Amino acid sequence: MKTIATLLLLLTTPALAEGSMPDFSGAWKRDCEKSYGLQISHTKDNQFSITFCFPAGCNDHAWIAGTAIAGDPKFKVVSESKIGVRRVDRPDAWLTYHRCSRDPASWKGTSSVDRLGEANSDPSPK
Fold it and tell me: C-alpha distances in angstroms, 9 versus 15, 18, 46, 49?
């Protein structure tokens, strides 16, 4: 009976069965078509640094540094590609983010200089 219980535990918790924690690194957005969201970078000891990103790029400092995400009360892990972030104004509510890329450096934002160049570009059809 003990063997069956152990087997069931391993089957229902894949992270334990594989011996590894999930890697949440990447670009996360509420809607992958939007130009703002979160950049999650792996640091050390299965910890992550979370930075807000906007169309102009990402903040220079982390919003949350040194979190495991899994087990942190500020987060709810739904799957490896979907997490909830606890709302500050309503602690019983969550903002859902989807992983849009596994590479945190893939964050695509345009700088204000690039946006200015686009605004001054030739509008004539080609």
Answer: 11, 12, 22, 30
Is there a contact between 84 and 74 (Cβ–Cβ < 8 Å)?
A: no
- Which tokens is 14 given? 């894949």
Q: How confident is the model at residue 37 (pLDDT cuts 50, 70, 90)?
A: very high
Domain boundaries, the chain: 21-101
Contacting residues for 92 by C-beta, under 8 A, at least 6 apart: none
Q: Per-residue DSSP letters for 82-123?
A: EEEEE-SS-TT-EEEEEEEES-GGG-----HHHHHHHHTS--
Two tokens at 120?
A: 């001054």
Q: Give the residue among 110, 104, 92, 112 at the shortest CA–CA distance from 29.
A: 104
Write down the pTM of the prediction. Answer: 0.68
Nearest to 24 by CA among 99, 86, 126: 99
Q: Residue 39: what are its φ and ψ, rounded to 5°?
A: -110, 120
